[in-house]
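Exercise 7.
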Amino acid sequence: MQDNAFIELPFEPSVDSKIVKSLDSNSVIIPSYNELNFLYDVSTYLVRGKLLIAGKDDSILLDMVNKVFCPNSIQFSWLAYSSKEDGAYCLPCTLLGASIPNKSGILNLVFKPHQEWGNAVRDYRKHEENCVLHEKSMLSFNALLSSCNSKSNVIEVDLNNSCLKLLSDNRKKLVPIIKTIIFFGRNALAFRGHRNDSKYHPDIGEFSTQKVKVGNFIELLNFRVDAGDQVLANNLSSSSKNATYISKTTLNQLIDSCGKAIEEDFLRFIDCKTGTSGLSLSLNVLNALQEFGLDIQICRGQGYDGADCMAGEYKGVASRIKALNHKAIFVHCASHRLSLVVAAACQVQKRRWG
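Solution. The predicted structure, written as tokens, is:
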């Protein structure tokens, strides 16, 4: 028994279209839209779909689906018509099948258009019922529609949001502790006392007794709590003992991290009109520092490339400034060294085997 699935087409195929020459009682309607253009032609979706990731590019995928998807118009709602190729494609397989392992070797409706209009219903039903790729693609396709149309988030989104919130909360807990560490470092204050173990710590927001001194760090944290720092108070009162970030081990790690954070500021870009000799450049640097009120005697480091005018042992900028301040130690610029190594490596002839 032949299937009688002929329905009036919702688009106007060209006069030379194969579908016009093949319409009979075994033909099937194919969804389309009125102003089909190349950008949203379903024949381009296979290539474009490979560049998109479900869950990350859902809005782009949904936009592509909405351009060609007509879920209530026909028996096979997954069909889409390509005016460019004058053929039918399976929208889920074409758009989402690129990321699904496929060993079936299927070509029609996915990698090339289906144009056998006389056997359309039979071929479409076979694709729908027997194709493993289609089954998996439909699961991803329905999940995409559900996640985009549902008011609630899918479980993956909720888990990701939960992780981001936990990360944000933990960072907020560290802010008052790190600010306290920086305060001690800037003022050259001692952190610990004679009894720094947690068993000697006073209650949160309280101060230690005269007999037991727990050190400035714990005392200042409690002072902050007493002054109304709710973030710090909640951290110390509700977090587990291994998540308060105030132990001496964690404190040492945070101190090291603060020491590795080097602040870089550009005071001025100097135009070397007087020349590029070591003497001229060093005078430009010293004059600029003097204008900013910076004493060369408090300089503790210099960093230049290896040019003679900069790093020369006797007449370079580094040696001239070090003669004024022996504590201004010269260190060769590591980035420039790396640049030289990369440049030299690029000049090495490639070995070819075979």
